């Protein structure tokens, strides 16, 4: 039996972004541009291209720029029309029509698990996708949609996973995996920020999951974990060890917009592919590389 279609998504974007200070003192990292488009717009577009209709963005103090970005801007639209910049006008207008977006504020920044709990009323009794607001994934088949298909086929919670280095996994999470089919794995346990001796595998959750509404009952009693934060991984561990979860080793390139190297990789790689400046940027990089 096919499970319910996933039509809702939550984008947590309330974090303090301390790894990107001072840029994030007043500017949300979710608004960092990859050339000319903010990270969170890539994420909303990925959700929409995955069949998502309703999106809840979790914000906090100082993150109102995100709401402005997805709102209408009549003065700018009028100016673009008057100066016959029709293409730019349509691009700007389209941002406000991408999806049905609502917002809620996380009152204290107590961790991703606490942020997701704010989606309880929004989700109701439906499954929902979570797209981390600083993880951009670029690929032909939207990563969120790959996870939604796994949920719809199995009815189990799904996490997007990728193999990382032993050094990196200690900063992320580690999954206990068994192969299911193709790039799908059964997940029977997981741990957040493992010590080397606690690592199950080098598969880590990176940026995406699809959760059943039962997660809210679990989050009600999830205690603060690594770093004193309420970790979503600790709540998902309970799902994994009781019902089991599915891990999808998704296709697409993931960029971590929450750390400096990730931001630079995103800008350089996508700058090279950019229709307007790609060619010039390639020539510039080639010339620069001879001096390195
Ligand atoms: P991160 O842990 O990468 O974000 O959370 P952070 O806490 O802002 O990062 P640093 O360590 O201080 O640099 C992943 C996503 O979850 C959101 C963040 O905004 C980010 O998009 N988040 C995190 C919340 O919405 N609330 C939280 O309490 C924590």
Question: What are the key terms here?
Answer:
single chain, about 290 residues, alpha/beta, Spore Coat Polysaccharide Biosynthesis Protein SpsA, Chain A, nine-stranded mixed sheet, two-stranded antiparallel sheet, 12 helices, binds uridine 5'-triphosphate
Overall description:
The protein has one domain (8-289): Alpha-Beta Complex (Spore Coat Polysaccharide Biosynthesis Protein SpsA, Chain A). A nine-stranded mixed β-sheet has the order 5-4-1-6-11-8-12-10-9. A two-stranded antiparallel sheet has the order 2-3. A two-stranded antiparallel sheet has the order 7-13. 36% of the residues lie in helices and 24% in strands. Helix 3 runs antiparallel to helix 4 (86-95) and helix 11 (260-273) crosses helix 12. Strand 2 (33-34) and strand 3 (37-38) form a beta hairpin. The chain has 292 residues and is of the alpha/beta class.
Number of strands: 13
Q: Provide the succession of SSEs.
A: EEEHEHHHEHHEEHEHEEEHHEEHH
Q: Helical proportion?
A: 25-40%
How confident is the prediction overall: mean pLDDT? 96
Q: How many H/I helices?
A: 12
Outline type: globular
Q: Largest sheet at a glance?
A: 9 strands, mixed
CATH homologous superfamily caption: Spore Coat Polysaccharide Biosynthesis Protein SpsA, Chain A
Contiguous uncertain segments of 5+ residues: none
SS class: alpha/beta
Q: Write down the domain tally.
A: 1
Question: Which strand-content bin applies to the residues?
Answer: 15-25%
Per CATH, the architecture is: Alpha-Beta Complex
């Amino acid at each position: 039996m096919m499970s319910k279609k996933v039509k809702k998504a939550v984008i947590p974007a309330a974090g303090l972004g301390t790894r990107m200070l001072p840029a994030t003192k007043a500017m949300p990292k979710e608004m960092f541009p990859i050339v000319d488009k903010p990270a969170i717009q890539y994420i909303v577009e990925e959700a929409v291209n995955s069949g998502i209709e309703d999106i809840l963005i979790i914000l906090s103090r100082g993150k109102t720029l995100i709401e402005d970005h997805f709102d209408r801007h009549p003065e700018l639209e009028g100016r673009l029309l008057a100066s016959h910049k029709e293409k730019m006008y349509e691009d700007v207008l389209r941002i406000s029509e991408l999806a049905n977006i609502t917002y809620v504020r996380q009152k204290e920044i107590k961790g991703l698990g606490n942020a997701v709990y704010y989606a309880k009323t929004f989700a109701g009794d439906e499954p929902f996708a979570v797209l981390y607001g600083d993880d951009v994934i670029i690929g032909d088949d939207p990563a969120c949609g790959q996870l939604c298909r796994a949920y719809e086929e199995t009815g189990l919670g799904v996490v997007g996973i990728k193999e990382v280095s032993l050094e990196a996994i200690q900063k992320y999470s580690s999954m206990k995996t068994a192969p299911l089919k193709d790039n799908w794995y059964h997940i029977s346990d997981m741990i957040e920020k493992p010590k080397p001796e606690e690592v199950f595998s080098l598969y880590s959750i990176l940026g995406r999951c699809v959760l059943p509404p039962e997660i809210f009952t679990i989050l009600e009693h999830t205690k603060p974990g690594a770093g004193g934060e309420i970790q979503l991984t600790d709540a998902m561990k309970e799902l994994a060890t009781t019902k089991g979860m599915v891990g999808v080793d998704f296709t697409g390139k993931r960029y971590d917009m929450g750390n400096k190297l990730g931001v630079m990789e995103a800008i350089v790689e996508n700058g090279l592919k950019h229709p307007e400046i790609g060619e010039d940027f390639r020539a510039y990089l080639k010339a620069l590389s001879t001096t390195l």
